[in-house]
Write a sequence for this structure.
């Protein structure tokens, strides 16, 4: 199963290459935000992340609801966090 989990943008690390550092449940990684290039992402924005890619921009309320829901999915949530932890964008 593929899930998108909420992550908060910490910083735009490379605007030209559409890279941003996000925090997902305390884990910080640089991800691709290329799919959201037209959304003008800024630090503190929330995005749905799947294995190193931001898939959608969301608001704080949606991030809270989504995080609560995916945590209830047990192993699928753990698997998604594991995938995020091991992902990297070069």
């Amino acid at each position: 199963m593929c899930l998108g989990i909420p992550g908060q943008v910490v910083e735009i690390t490379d605007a030209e290459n559409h890279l941003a550092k996000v925090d997902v449940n305390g884990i910080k990684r640089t991800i691709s935000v290329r799919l959201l290039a037209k959304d003008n992402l800024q630090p503190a924005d929330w995005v749905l992340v799947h294995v190193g890619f931001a898939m959608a921009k969301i608001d704080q309320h949606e991030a809270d609801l989504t995080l609560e829901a995916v945590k209830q999915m047990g192993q699928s949530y753990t698997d998604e966090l594991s995938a995020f932890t091991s992902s990297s964008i070069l």
